[in-house]
Specification:
Chain A is mainly α and 69 residues long. Chain A contains one helix and no strands. In chain B, the strands form two sheets. Chain B has an eleven-stranded mixed sheet with strand order 1-3-2-4-6-5-10-11-9-7-8, sandwiched between helices. In chain B, strands 12-13 form a two-stranded antiparallel ribbon. Classes of the chains: A mainly alpha (69), B alpha/beta (441).
């Protein structure tokens, strides 16, 4: 799991895992853990981008391009 | 003049229109090709030879009555998530084996009205997700034909049909085109009708076309989407092409080397090739796609998974179960970002006629996987037209795809540019199925 960057990723991941355990049982939850980790990381990225979009006028993100350009 | 497997669309229609051969002969030739090779290749899921013969005879009767249809007698393969009247839509899901469609999907109906002959349904990964289809790669039976449109992507280079339909929700049109060595085109989102197609993710699902060359593909696309088809627009004399260098950094060395060689040849032919990056970081595009994909797939499949838990493949099952747990706020954020990204990418096309990148980061992978979907996702999420051209071979002597992405709604311009590109960078030949695995000299 990547380090949480202030967007609640770890909390989201914990809640998803608890939900998955309740719904599908321990074995299935373990099988789901990798996919849940993946989605939690994706949600974290989406959340960061959404915060940036709120700060910038629509269509003009102030967020630097992470590819370095 | 006799028909033969591997004929182009124009060769078939010229032959039929000119009375040189009958549609029934065209059908027989292609059915023989399937009978000869498909036990090993497994591109087709369902073929009803009686239906094919009846349809071919009807098209011959139409010819005798004076009809000259634009695709008169052109055989097509249809991905098995798209309804064809009288055939089951199995979608790689055993409980649907006897689920016969009672009417054609809109896209099939349009093709039939143009004179096309539906030869059969082609294998897909289960519900067009990630559990591999039974299809083999026509260049090497031990390598993946990709997914999800595995059967359609393999049937065209194998000469079983000149044209096939596929779909793309992540990378399912373009990746099979690259791995199997044919031309694959995913039009702008919404340009192809989805009625009668099993949905996966409604805001990402696209239909697309496979063909052996750009001319065939452009012909079929124009007939399907333009009320009064004309010739393609003229490609710019000095096309402006943005080479997406960040994707070269993510590619295997042989893939990056090949794409740089393609870019050099295009520049020599007169294109202005400039190294650029997407105006949106790729990681963000990928994340937004993954959240929307997971949520919509779960929405579509959750109830069915509850009904048939033992029949779902492990990858789609895990994806649906995890997607069902996504918070609604995250999905809404992702949808909002998708709209924002679409606006931003459109601005980038003020400077470029097309963006250039590899179709996939590597040659065909092992059969247990369907390949790296990352490079196909930008065009999917942003709804942009994209084409994969089979322009060379990698270190394992398997096909490599060159991807061009165009501006939304400028599909015909992208096809015209593609026709210009293949004059500078010829497409590879078909695989030699008798010596499976060896490209022709």
């Amino acid at each position: 799991m990547k380090q949480d960057q202030g967007t609640g990723t770890e909390e989201v991941r914990r809640r998803l895992f608890v939900d998955a355990t309740e719904l599908y049982g321990d074995d299935r939850a373990r099988e789901l853990a990798e996919q849940i980790d993946h989605l939690a990381q994706m949600m974290s990225t989406v959340a960061r981008q959404t915060l940036d979009m709120r700060r910038a006028p629509l269509g003009k993100s102030t967020r630097p391009n992470r590819s370095g350009r | 003049m006799k028909p033969f497997a591997g004929m182009s669309v124009s060769e078939i229609t010229r032959g039929v229109h000119g009375g040189h051969f009958r549609v029934t002969e065209v059908a027989d030739v292609h059915l023989k090709q399937i009978a000869r090779y498909d036990e090993a290749l497994r591109a087709f899921a369902t073929i009803d030879r009686n239906l094919v013969h009846a349809e071919a005879a009807w098209l011959d009767a139409q010819y005798d009555a004076g009809a000259r249809l634009p695709l008169h007698g052109v055989p097509i393969g249809v991905k098995d998530i798209i309804d064809v009247a009288g055939l089951p839509t199995i979608a790689g899901f055993e409980p649907y084996r006897d689920k016969i469609a009672h009417r054609d999907a809109e896209i099939v109906s349009r093709l039939r009205s143009l004179g096309a002959l539906v030869l059969g349904k082609t294998h897909t990964t289960q519900f067009a997700v990630g559990d591999p289809a039974p299809t083999r790669n026509p260049w090497d039976p031990q390598r993946s034909p990709a997914g999800s449109s595995a059967g359609s992507g393999a049937a065209v280079p194998a000469g079983m049909v000149p044209v096939a339909l596929g779909s793309q929700t992540a990378g399912s049109m373009l990746r099979p085109a690259a791995f199997n060595g044919c031309v694959g085109f995913k039009p702008t989102y919404g340009w192809m009708p989805m009625d009668g197609v099993l949905p996966l993710c409604w805001s990402l699902d696209h239909l697309g076309i496979y063909a052996a060359n750009v001319d065939d593909l452009a012909c079929v696309f124009q007939l399907l989407t333009t009320p009064q088809p004309t010739s393609l627009p003229t490609a710019p004399t000095m096309p402006r092409i943005g080479l997406l260098s960040e994707f070269l950094e993510m590619s295997e060395p042989d893939v990056a080397t090949h794409l740089r060689a393609v870019a050099t040849r295009l520049a020599r032919r007169g294109a202005s090739v400039v190294q650029v990056n997407l105006p949106i970081p790729f990681d963000d595009i990928f994340a937004v796609h993954q959240v929307i994909f997971a949520a919509e797939m779960a929405s579509v499949h959750n109830a069915n998974l509850t009904r048939y838990p033992g029949d779902y493949g492990p990858r789609i099952r895990t994806g649906v179960e995890a997607g069902a747990l996504l918070p609604g706020t995250s999905v809404l954020h992702a949808q909002r970002l998708q709209r924002e990204f679409i606006s931003r990418i459109d601005d980038a096309f003020a400077s470029f006629d097309a963006l250039l990148l590899p179709t996939v980061s590597s040659e065909a992978c092992e059969r247990s996987e369907t390949g790296d979907r990352r490079f196909q996702i930008p065009a999917t999420l942003l709804g942009l037209p994209a084409i994969s051209l089979p322009t060379g071979f990698g270190d394992r002597n398997l096909p490599l795809g060159t991807q061009l992405i165009g501006r939304a709604g400028h599909d015909r311009e992208l096809l015209a540019l593609s026709a210009w590109v293949v004059e500078a960078v010829p497409l590879i030949d078909r695989p030699d199925l008798d010596g499976w695995g060896s490209p022709r000299a």
